[in-house]
Amino acid sequence: MARVLHQPQARDAIKAGIDTLSGAVIPTLGPLTGPVALDDANRKGSPELLDDGGVIARRILQLDDRDADIGAMLLRETLWEQRERCGDGTATAAVLYQSVFSEGRRFISAGGDAMLLREQLEDGIQIMLAALQEQAQEISSPKEIEGLALSISGDRAIATALADIFDVLSPHSPIDLRDGGRDLQHEFFLGSFWEGKVPSGIVFEGVVGERIELKNTAWLISDFELDDINALVALVTDAYQAGFDSLAIVARSFSEQIIAAQGANKQMDDFTLVYIEPTGLVDEQEAALEDLALITDGQVLRTITGHSPGTIRRDLLGASELAWLDRKRFGITVGAGDEETVRREIAALERRFALSDDSRRQGLLRTRIGRLRGGSAVVYAPGSSESEMRYQKSVIERTVAAIRSALLSGVLPGGGTALLRCIDRLREAYSAGADPQERAAGRILIAAATAPCRQLLANAGHEAPGIVVDKILSGANGATFDLQSGHIVDMNSEGVIDSAAAVMTAVRQGIGGAALALTVDTIVHRVNPPLAIEPGGLPMSTDIGNIELK
């Protein structure tokens, strides 16, 4: 039998859950904070150290108090969406969410209308976004990138390494994180690479190491389920007679007979045959084939268009001068693709990226753009223990995501200053309002705009955040507070900056999410509800939801 919770208990319960979850996330706000230690009864070894608000929220699957759990899960979804979109800004979104809900709840409890207040708050979001957009500046120099990275990670070594990487690579270039040693290190790689599975280890027999270098290679790019031995023999013979030193076949699957034939080919000392199966979801595999065809000047051969292993012509194959293969990836250093054609495709993908607001779609487009541009980097995260290694990789991953968004959308004054600069616009818009909801919304938004800066100062140990806020507001337009030095500084000269995309998304997510939560009137608890493992949804095999919002 379902249990129903009405007002005012419902809103009190939601606030309790928001306060609980935000209390775990907000301590990560700012460069002078430490990680949050997450203990899991099912985890063996040391606790997980986290400095990523989105990941912290994602790890919290359920609160013991089912009433409060509703508020925590509403905030959890908001923070994970923020993290997926920008990589950074989750703690800022949590502060905004908590501030708006707390102040809004107080107004509604005094007789205010929740729906009308929500409308006014959503209007205020647009006012703040316009004010933030006016402050945004482009970022390009290594010094600016290093300043942004330092403000996010609080680690000079990470900031310096990432500034060097993004000075060489584009905002979309792939950056791989791996376990390292005692010190942070990074290195660059030329060309493009793909995720792919080698169906048999035969090709690696007798090879020193786990990597094969391929020179003068022909590429068959297809979605075939390859099982025609005669077609394979003809294809190998044709490639060999054409003067290629190796043949790489990309297909959906390879039969046992085809794999055995690869073993027989090992007897040819001057010709190499390799098999590759693309990995990932269907759209990821399709994108991989398209990019591979562009870079090698080949064609994607699909069964649905009438192609088959027995009808392959030499002019349908791609080619590369230098390539490589290991057990999980393959790459091309020098391909035969037309540079102008590749540039046109990159431009088209970048336009689609700019127009997309779906985080997964943007991720796929970013992968394609980076792959077609060529060039990648590997960062080796330092650490003396597994927990420290995971923590360092989490910090680097979050910082990389924020730098990417900043290079594409610009930066804002850091330390919560950009939000403080919205206050004048909010006062101008709401001060003359006669409607109680309008005036209340103005007060709530002004309080929210000051909350991140105050919380940053509190996290850094400053005892008088109000005085610092007043000094920032009375300073020049570029004035901000440097938590590292403890002084008011100029943003442009000192590089105290935040990603514009992260801050603006936090405003949309934090304030918009709280405005919606304020309108929840009734909570309906179901008996034995399924557990939501992923924020914003349940596994496909489960029943729908564990709450109803009215």
Give structural attributes.
single chain; 550 residues; alpha/beta; three-stranded mixed sheet; 19 helices
The gist of it:
The chain is an alpha/beta fold.
Could you walk me through the main structural features you see in this protein, from its secondary elements to its overall organization?
The chain is of the alpha/beta class and about 550 residues long. The protein has 19 helices and 20 strands. The protein has helices spanning about 10-25, 55-60, 65-85, 90-110, 115-135, 140-155, 155-170, 230-240, 255-265, 280-295, 340-355, 360-375, 385-410, 415-420, 425-430, 435-460, 465-475, 490-495, 500-520; strands at about 5, 35-40, 50, 175-180, 185-190, 190-195, 210-220, 225, 245-250, 255, 270-280, 300, 320-325, 330-335, 375-380, 410-415, 480, 485-490, 495-500, 525. The strands form 7 sheets. The chain has a 6-stranded mixed β-barrel with strand order 6-11-9-7-13-14, surrounded by 4 helices. α1 runs antiparallel to α4 (about 90-110), α3 crosses α4 (about 90-110) and α4 packs across α16. The longest helix has 24 residues, at about 385-410. It is elongated.
